[in-house]
Structure formats: structure tokens, C-alpha cells
Recover the amino acids of this structure.
């Protein structure tokens, strides 16, 4: 049974706390979005309040087993001190003598933060010996990094199994509760909104949603693979030729399950792939041969808005167009606005990280929807019904 920190006391313990401090940095090594840090604070604060010392483990970026100074967690250590007032004892390594020295130096009320785990390939290769070394630093283990629980990494999968006392952190338990509600305690009409470039990334989650949703709205680059499956010409729009048959299968499956798989009726096309390109709305049956699709069109935005506003449960993952370019962000922003509006009417709205979460944040709507999950990959794995290694390890018998 998965146990939560909510019902535990950590007085006198060194608590190995796996968090997700994989925060975005600008060219000046400044943190530009601290949401992932903020999400870990309730668990950190509980451990400190109980009289324990959090020994924090995390990764930052993808250094691929090499020492990359700009990906040092010392940046986060300073941020925790300067913005939140914590006293952080930073260990400049996660192996060797440094962690032991940092832990010995720490007093009740302090935080120990170890250097980036991914500076060693042992982490991403799920190395058991690496986990055994890390286990020496603590008396108990807590995972509060939902965004990483879909990975077979050493600190996520092997490390917790070495502890009798292992728990889910507050943020992780909240994520599981919200996502569980989205799949198991559904109020209809239930709508899934799926976007992004590739259908291959979302096949299993679309299949799962077809089983439970009344309507699925499709946007983003993947719509062109569906159009190909329907025999439509798509100009120079990018599609996955090897997934056209799968798109046909999904269309047929939706019909069998009486799920309305809804594709855009019009799109925004451009004469080249740039924000300053010439662009226009066209019907999907009249896409010019030398133009390419960039976003859902105006008529589709209105149709999607109506479906969303008539729904009681909505999950969303993936942008409706090339969201990074302002001229092709209208579809994504329209969906975000509609989700905020329907939440105000009492609907449950869950946004699955990545660009979808970025759109919600850009429009200052984070507090206007039910929940934005930080872990896009973990969200998809969960929604597909697949095993989450980090959760399996916490529940290990």
C-alpha cells in the first residue's frame, strides 16, 4: 500500500527526499519558473517541522553523465535561500566525502541539497550500487517528484526499495488523487483534448480516452496524420506516414465505442514555417498544395469552445498549433480560455503539463483551472494505464 507523508512523523530522521528541481534557466543562470520548487515546499516544510532534516536529491537538465557547470543545483540552493529563507547546506557532489560532510554540518531546520544526480550515468541507467551509496545518507525515503515517476532511474526505482520507511510526498499524492479522479470518478460529459506534433506519442492515451470520453478533440500536428487516414490532401504539412493506418484504427475504434473523435474543420495555413509568414484560414478539404498547416482555424475554435463549455470533466494535453509562434497560438490560447471559463461553471479541468501548462501560465490562468500537472511524460504514462516505476517502487512488498 502506498503510504503518504501526511500520516508520518520524521523527528530525528535524515529524510532522503527526491524532488524535481528540473527548472528552466535563462542565459544568466536565473530560474525563470519556480513552480516545481514551489510544489516541493509543503513536504520540505513538514519534514523540518517534524524535526527531521531533508536530504534533497534531484536532477537538472540532461548532462548525460558529464559535469556541466551551468546545470549545477547550486543555483537552486541559492534560490531556496534568497527567495524562501531556508538555510541550505549544499553538497558539491552526490558521491564521495562531500555528502557526508554536508549532512554532518546540517542542523535541525536546515536543508541539505546534493549535486545533480545526472552528473553520473549511474542515475539514468538505474544502477543498484549507486542507489546503495545514496541510501547511506538517510533513514527514510520520500518521493515528491511526480514528473519523474515514469522513469526507471536509480533514485526513483532502486533507491526506495532499500528503505523500510518509504513514502509519497504531498505533491506526488495530490497528483495521483487528481489523475485518479480524472479516470475513475468521471462526471459526464467527459471531453479529452489531445494535441502536439506526433500521433505516435499519444496513441495509447487516445485509446484509453476513447474508452471513457464522450468526445475527443484533436489538434496540433497530429491532425494531419488523421487527415491522411481520411484521404485528404494536406499540402506540405508534416505527418507520420507510418502511423496513417493507426489513425484509421483510432477513428474506427472511436465509432465502435460511440466516442465523438472530432477533427478540425478548418485550419490556419502558412506559406512557410515562420511567425512572419503569410497565413490564412482554409477549409480542411481545400488546403493549398504548397502551404503547410500551423494551427486550428476560427470555425474550429468556436466548435471546440462549445464542446468544452458543455463538458463537466476535461483533460488536456498538447498544443493546438505551433504555440511558440504568436500568429499560430490562437487555437491553444482559445482552448486555455475556454477551460478557465468552464472551470468557473464547476467543471473539473486537468491540464497535462508541457506546452498546455505553459499556455495556461502565459495567460495567468493557473488558478482558474482545477489542476495543472507538472509531469507531461508521467501524466501520459498514467493516463495510458501503464505502470509508473516510481510508484511501483514505493508500493514494493
Amino acid at each position: 500500500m502506498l503510504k503518504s507523508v501526511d500520516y508520518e512523523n520524521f523527528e530525528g530522521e535524515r529524510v532522503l527526499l527526491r524532488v524535481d528541481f528540473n527548472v528552466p534557466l535563462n542565459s544568466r543562470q536565473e530560474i525563470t519558473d519556480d513552480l516545481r520548487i514551489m510544489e516541493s515546499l509543503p513536504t520540505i516544510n513538514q519534514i523540518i517541522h517534524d524535526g527531521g532534516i531533508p536530504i534533497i536529491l534531484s536532477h537538472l537538465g540532461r548532462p548525460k553523465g558529464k559535469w556541466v557547470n551551468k546545470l549545477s543545483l547550486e543555483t537552486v540552493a541559492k534560490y531556496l535561500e534568497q527567495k524562501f529563507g531556508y538555510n541550505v547546506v549544499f553538497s558539491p557532489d552526490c558521491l564521495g566525502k562531500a555528502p557526508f560532510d554536508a549532512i554532518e554540518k546540517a542542523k535541525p531546520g536546515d536543508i541539505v541539497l546534493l549535486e545533480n544526480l545526472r552528473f553520473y550515468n549511474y542515475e539514468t541507467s538505474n544502477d543498484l550500487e549507486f542507489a546503495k551509496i545514496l541510501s547511506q545518507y538517510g533513514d527514510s525515503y520520500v518521493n515528491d517528484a511526480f514528473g519523474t515517476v515514469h522513469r526507471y532511474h536509480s533514485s526513483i526505482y532502486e533507491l526506495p526499495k532499500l528503505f523500510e520507511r518509504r513514502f509519497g510526498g504531498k505533491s506526488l499524492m495530490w497528483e495521483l488523487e487528481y489523475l485518479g479522479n480524472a479516470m475513475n470518478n468521471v462526471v459526464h460529459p467527459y471531453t479529452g483534448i489531445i494535441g502536439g506534433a506526433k500521433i505516435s506519442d499519444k496513441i495509447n492515451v487516445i485509446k484509453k480516452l476513447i474508452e471513457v470520453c464522450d468526445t475527443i478533440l484533436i489538434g496540433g500536428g497530429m491532425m494531419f496524420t488523421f487527415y491522411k487516414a481520411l484521404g485528404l490532401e494536406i499540402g506540405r504539412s508534416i505527418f507520420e506516414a507510418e502511423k496513417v493506418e493507426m489513425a484509421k484504427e483510432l477513428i474506427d475504434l472511436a465509432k465502435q465505442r460511440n466516442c465523438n473523435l472530432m477533427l478540425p474543420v478548418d485550419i490556419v495555413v502558412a506559406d512557410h514555417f515562420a511567425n512572419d509568414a503569410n497565413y490564412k484560414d482554409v477549409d480542411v478539404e481545400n488546403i493549398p498544395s504548397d502551404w503547410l498547416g500551423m494551427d486550428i482555424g476560427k470555425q474550429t475554435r468556436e466548435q471546440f469552445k462549445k464542446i468544452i463549455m458543455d463538458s463537466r470533466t476535461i483533460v488536456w494535453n498538447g498544443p493546438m498549433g505551433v504555440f511558440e509562434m504568436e500568429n499560430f497560438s490562437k487555437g491553444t490560447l482559445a482552448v486555455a480560455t475556454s477551460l478557465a471559463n468552464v472551470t468557473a461553471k464547476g467543471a473539473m479541468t486537468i491540464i497535462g503539463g508541457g506546452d498546455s501548462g505553459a499556455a495556461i501560465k502565459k495567460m495567468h490562468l493557473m488558478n482558474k483551472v482545477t489542476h495543472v500537472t507538472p509531469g507531461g511524460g508521467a501524466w501520459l504514462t498514467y493516463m495510458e494505464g501503464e505502470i509508473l516505476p516510481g510508484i511501483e517502487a514505493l508500493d514494493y512488498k
Observations:
- The longest strand covers residues 14-18.
